[in-house]
Amino acid sequence: MHIPPYENNNKPIIDIENNIIPNIYFNIIKLSKGEEFAICLKGYEICIVPATGSIDVEISNKTFKNIGNRKTDVWDGEPECIYIPCNQEAKIKCVSRNCELFIAGAKYDKILEPFVIRSNEIDLVQYGSDETKTHRKIKHLLGQKQSQKVGRLLVSELFTVGAGGWSGFPSHKHDTDRLPLETKHDEAYNFRFRPNHGSALQLLQAENKDQGKSFHIVNGSTFCISNGYHPVCVLPGYEMYYFTILAGYSQRPLVQFFQPVHEYQVDLIPGIKDMVAKFK
């Protein structure tokens, strides 16, 4: 499902128990310096990622200071984030001139410990190539390094390297729990482009269909994925970013099932296997 960009006024874009991807929560919060926002989700763990700006976060009478250091856009420096367990109230305060925050959530009912990930602690993987039009960089915020500290939530930022090309290819899906071949994970994206009038085509093809559907993705688009193969292609001349949320049903590690007709390209595109290994 494509959700075109709109002014959400700090209200959830994907609320809890969404009818398409019930395991995921997503909100975009915009604050000016000194403004505050409080959030507490029952049964959902969350991760707060400043797209721009800096925040202080108070939880359980402990304050985590100066999270986030990007000033202009998501290309301006490395990301930071804070993990908030389910059922715990987080009080967010903007300490920069303004801020835009991504709040990602996954259904989970065990209360863990909050923690911050600084820019020097993110897990980076680069894969693909210019020759195969698949050159990409993924910055894992909640990835393999945090596997023992979170429940079912995976959060990352994906950037194109260069302008134009494909992402999410070879086409893959993760809509069925059938280990060791595949796991069921809901997924959501929020897209940005540089320059911001860029756009992309998000494809979605059901397993039992010979043809799929395409969606015109623009700056600020949100896309929900509950099933099917889902590669995306950005127009030539534009860089693409998308904020990625994954929430597992039976486990946190993601097992992707590559579309059989394209699976052989896993061995032709550099770094695909390393990329897959980080979603754990």
Mean pLDDT across the residues is 95
Fourth CATH level, the homologous superfamily: Jelly Rolls
**CATH structural class:** Mainly Beta
Largest sheet: 8 strands, antiparallel
Strand segment count? 22
What is the global morphology? globular
Intertermini distance: 25 Å
Assess the beta-strand content as a share of residues: over 45%
Q: Supply Rg.
A: 18 Å
Can you tell me the residue ranges where pLDDT is under 50 for at least 5 consecutive residues?
Answer: none
Helices and strands, with pairings:
Layout: E1 2-3, E2 24-32, E3 36-39, E4 44-59, E5 62-70, E6 81-84, E7 90-94, E8 98-107, E9 115-117, E10 123-127, E11 136-142, E12 153-160, E13 165-167, E14 172-173, E15 175-178, E16 182-194, E17 199-204, E18 213-218, E19 222-225, E20 232-234, E21 239-248, E22 257-258, H1 272-277
Antiparallel strand pairs: 1-19, 2-8, 3-7, 4-5, 4-6, 4-7, 4-8, 6-9, 10-11, 11-12, 12-21, 13-20, 14-22, 15-16, 16-19, 16-21, 17-18, 17-20
How would you summarize what this structure contains?
The chain is an all-beta fold and 280 residues long. Helix content is 2%, strand content 48%.
Report on the structure:
The structure is a single chain. This protein has one domain (17-277): Jelly Rolls (Sandwich). 2% of the residues lie in helices and 48% in strands. It is built from one helix and 22 strands. It has one helix at residues 272-277, and strands at residues 2-3, 24-32, 36-39, 44-59, 62-70, 81-84, 90-94, 98-107, 115-117, 123-127, 136-142, 153-160, 165-167, 172-173, 175-178, 182-194, 199-204, 213-218, 222-225, 232-234, 239-248, 257-258. Strand 17 (199-204) and strand 18 form a beta hairpin. The longest helix is centred in the C-terminal third of the chain and has 6 residues, at 272-277. The radius of gyration is 18 Å and the shape is globular.
